[in-house]
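cache lookup: miss for this entity combination. No prior model stored, computing from scratch. Input as submitted by user K.M.:
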Amino acid sequence: MTEPSQASNQVIAVEDINSYYGSSHVIQGLSLSVGEGEAVCILGRNGVGKTTTLRSIVGLTPPRSGSVRIGGAEVRGWPAHKITRLGVAYVPAERHIFPGLTVEENLLVASRPAPAGQETWTTDMVYETFPVLGQRRHSGGTQLSGGEQQMLAIGRALMGNPKVMLLDEPSQGLSPILVSRVAETVRALCRQHNLTLLLVEQNFRIALQMAGRHYLMGTKSKIQGVVSSKELMDNEELIKKHLSV
Amino acid sequence: MGALATVVDLILNSLVLGGVFLIVAIGLNIIYGLNRVMNLAHGSLYALGAYAGYTLVNLGGNFFLTLLFAPLVVGLVGLVIERVLISPMRARPMVYTLILTYGLMFVMDGCLKYFWGKETRFIAMPEFMTQTLSLGPVQYPVFRLVILLAIAAVMGGLMLMLGRTRMGVNMRAAADIPEMVSAVGVNLRMVQMGAFVLGCVLAGVAGALAGPLFTVYPVMGHGMLISSFVVVVIGGLGSLRGAIYAALLIGVVQTLAEFFITDLAMVLVYMMMALILVFKPRGLVGEGKFE
């Protein structure tokens, strides 16, 4: 088992949270932490509460109890836009591109000045990262292909000048080649901009490609173990037990 | 007046009537699209706009000044309504605000009666606007042409605001996927509040425009609420484009009907609405979205 990162430089620290989806108790006493510059994945099958975990952190499904700290600040109960402004970017699995807005407008909705001493993301910087978005800047958000929508969702997340990106199943609905390209791009982005990554996946290959430390999540969000990529690769039983392969 | 003159006259009247419907209906639509509130007090806000205009003109103000003053007054009242009544109800089902705004309509009508009396009021126009202008064969009142221009200006400004400003982009995004707007760092509550106030401002402009056009009386908003509701329903809930088509359609149908079969005019309008809903239950451009 890999030790969680040191308490001093934790970007995300979740402690004993309980979250509900309607009346069903989805997250039961979950704790996890992500250190600065880390790339961490929550691995688990469909329906164990991976998405709700991300939504709890960003404030879209506020936990009813426990603690969520972002860079040391206790944010449980904060509205989502305030949590986002601390440098937390959320990319949902469904992308949620605004259909009535152009590509450029989708980016502009999320744009805001960076805190002092940090570079501010501009639409031009996003177009440099994803040239295809620049070519299609005046297209409607829903006229994009699945891969382009994923790029737009990531680009939109970057416009908020994040320190940490919450990425929900980037593989959903994409071909394996596209998934690899998205994974590569995200890794490069994290390196270049010192971004911390918290990823949710049920595909262990993508998890291995993108993250170094993995929380194995079972039903009701119970953490069954925390493993390094190497431990995950060496242990096929773990994979079979926790994941759809 | 020749036949051609009558036709031109009817077309211009249709545009004026449809334009007023449009501004009220779009306000109703924007409020619904972002707040999921069907504002039944919208007609009363429109009436308040007309009374604000009436009062300003009586105090020696100019008609054009009322086009700024009335929306300001109604916008402020709208802001108070949003903060005090609508905002606390956000988490509740829509029926709560439906009943709430229905009650608010009667409260506002009562207030209008209390402060301005039950008598019908007329708003005096500037001298030059009482003239008529020769448009080919037609002598057309300058006033109606000014109203038409003002409607075009309001619509143009609204389109620019929604299309080009950050607030407008935020509003369109929030109408699409409200939750995602907060997840990209925008204060959704502020956007929703802004949309509510914008809707009220539009009702205020429409009232100031319509005051001199029709007459001013306490329940003048009731007919307007129903007509603009018909426009929203025919156009499709939440659809801006649909509202434009529908407002023009209703303007034409109502003007023609009033000209030919005066007493049955509204019957015809409702029959048309029923007919359209039979074939297009979600309205002409209805997809439940605000675009």
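stored under new cache key. The first strand of chain A starts at residue 10 and ends at 21.
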